[in-house]
Amino acid sequence: MIKEFKEFIARGNVMDMAVGIIIGAAFTAIVKSVVADLINPIIGLFTGGVDFTNNYAVLSGDVAEGASLEAARETGASVFAYGSFLMAVINFLIIAIVVFMLIRSVNKVKDAAMAKEEEAPAEEAPTGPSELDILVEIRDALKKA
């Protein structure tokens, strides 16, 4: 069983998957930082710093007027946190746009590199006599001899 496990781990596709997951996690951190540290503050300038996270409706329980969502949850009240969901949707859309733009720019660079490779003609190998030509020469040489 251990031998099979070692063979499984040593396969290329498992290692590729592991590298992909690690790179994906690092990329996720970068994208989250871009959204939280760069894009959201700019959007906040245009919206006046509006944050919907603390918008909720109390379904049951007693919550002090104007309490934050976290404070409402700490009291044990049942809350419908529509603002938190709305912010998650907005952040998802921003992340999707950022990832789209990054992938699009990477694809443009990749396509440009592929176009350059296609434009550069491959050097043609010098053509020599064909096999038939060589056989004809041998035949003629044998006839003369």
Number of helices: 5
- Helical amount among residues, as a percent range? over 70%
| Poorly predicted spans | none
Number of strands: 2
Looking at the chains present, what oligomeric state does this protein adopt? single chain
InterPro entries: Mechanosensitive_channel_CS, MS_channel, MSC/AndL, MscL_channel
Function: Channel that opens in response to stretch forces in the membrane lipid bilayer. May participate in the regulation of osmotic pressure changes within the cell.
Subcellular location: Cell inner membrane; Cell membrane
Membrane topology: Multi-pass membrane protein
What is the secondary structure topology, with strand pairs?
Elements (H helix, E strand, L loop, with lengths): L1 H9 L1 H36 L9 E4 L8 H6 L3 E3 L1 H38 L11 H14 L1
Antiparallel strand pairs: 1-2
Helix pairs in contact: 2-4
Folded structure, characterized:
The protein is built from 5 helices and 2 strands; from the N terminus they run ααβαβαα. The chain is mainly alpha-helical and 145 residues long. Strands 1-2 form a two-stranded antiparallel ribbon. Helix 2 crosses helix 4 (82-119). The radius of gyration is 33 Å and the shape is elongated. The mean pLDDT is 81.
What keyword list fits this structure?
145 residues; mainly alpha; 5 helices; cell inner membrane; transmembrane helix; ion channel; membrane
